[in-house]
Design a protein that fits this description.
The protein is an alpha/beta fold and 245 residues long. The protein has one domain: NAD(P)-binding Rossmann-like Domain (Rossmann fold, 3-Layer(aba) Sandwich). The protein has helices spanning 23-34, 47-54, 71-81, 104-133, 144-148, 155-175, 214-224, and strands spanning 14-18, 38-43, 61-65, 86-89, 136-141, 180-187, 235-238. A seven-stranded parallel β-sheet has the order 3-2-1-4-5-6-7, sandwiched between helices. The radius of gyration is 17 Å and the shape is globular. The model has no long low-confidence stretch (mean pLDDT 97). The protein binds nicotinamide-adenine-dinucleotide. Nicotinamide-adenine-dinucleotide (NAD) is lined by residues 18-19, 21-25, 43-45, 66-69, 90-94, 114, 118, 141, 143, 187, 189-190, 192-195.
Length: 245
């Protein structure tokens, strides 16, 4: 191994991060930027919300309002950013709806649109460009819910996160011959707006705390960087021992 091997160096790499106005997306943006990446930051809530969430960045950044569940908006996004080295898809929703309630069908539809069609739209737009350039990294977001049903989430969320775990493996098989590496991260309870105020009690978990978003962003960084160069088709549990498989 080259003595100069730097496992977290992203100099010269362009990394697109969705859900960048949220907890894990913003933390991932800060870490990738601090390690040399140019970042393209995407969120349905738009530029001001992304800027407010990420704060000051050390390198170049662009900001994009996009609903990733809409195929036409994602195609337009890809036109505007051009090819990227890394695609980190943090955008998702986890509505609290009761599956026995009549209103649940709408919550199910929207959760599938955002959590399943969003990643499908993004990978359909960016994967071919990565395959063409002969390199790329795709990091999707599953969840502990995708393995064991979740700590407090509803079945609509668990459906979609289990689907992401399966899709990660499907896409990793297709990317390998073009050096496009595809992995997912399956977090446990992370202290972000997604779970804030929803009864996630730190004392209930093995480490007696929630994780900081940076503790997930660090895995994003590594999976985008030279240190992640032989990982593909894996789902990395970052769950503080809330589920052992
Ligand atoms: N926080 C946790 O405990 C936890 C646990 C397991 C998995 N996850 C997963 O980690 C990822 C990041 O979660 P987080 O905790 O940072 O959530 P978050 O709610 O803090 O951020 C999600 C972001 O996605 C954006 N978003 C929602 N719908 C969108 C759409 N259609 N298009 C574009 N952007 C959209 C939101 O505006 C928000 O900024 C998600 O995939 C989530 O399911 C989180």
């Amino acid at each position: 191994m080259n003595q100069a091997f730097n496992p977290t160096d992203l100099s010269g790499k362009k990394i697109l991060i969705t859900g960048a106005a949220g907890g894990i997306g913003a933390a991932s943006a800060r870490l990738c930027s601090a390690h040399g990446a140019e970042v393209a930051l995407v969120d349905i809530s738009g530029e001001d919300a992304i800027r407010a969430a990420v704060g000051d960045l050390s390198g170049p950044a662009s900001f994009h309002a996009c609903d990733t569940s809409k195929r036409d908006e994602v195609i337009e996004l890809a036109r505007s950013t051009g090819p990227v080295y890394g695609l980190v898809d943090c955008a998702a929703i986890c509505p609290p709806d009761d599956w026995m309630d009549d209103s649940w069908d709408a919550a199910l539809d929207r959760t599938i649109e955002v959590n399943i069609k969003g990643p499908a739209n993004l990978t359909r737009a960016y994967f071919p460009m990565m395959a063409e350039q002969g390199e790329g990294r795709i990091i999707l977001f599953g969840s502990v819910a995708g393995w064991m049903g979740g700590l407090r989430s509803g079945p609509h969320y668990a459906f979609t996160k289990g689907g992401i775990h399966a899709f990660t493996r499907w896409l990793a098989q297709r990317g390998a011959s073009s050096n496009v590496l595809v992995n997912a991260i399956a977090p446990g309870p992370i202290d972000t707006p997604m779970i804030s105020g929803r009864g996630y009690e730190a004392e209930a978990y093995p480490l007696k705390r929630l994780a900081a978003p940076e503790e997930v962003g660090a895995f994003v960084l590594l999976l985008c960087a030279p240190g992640g160069a032989f990982a593909s088709g894996a789902i990395f549990d970052v769950n503080g021992a809330t589920h052992l498989r």
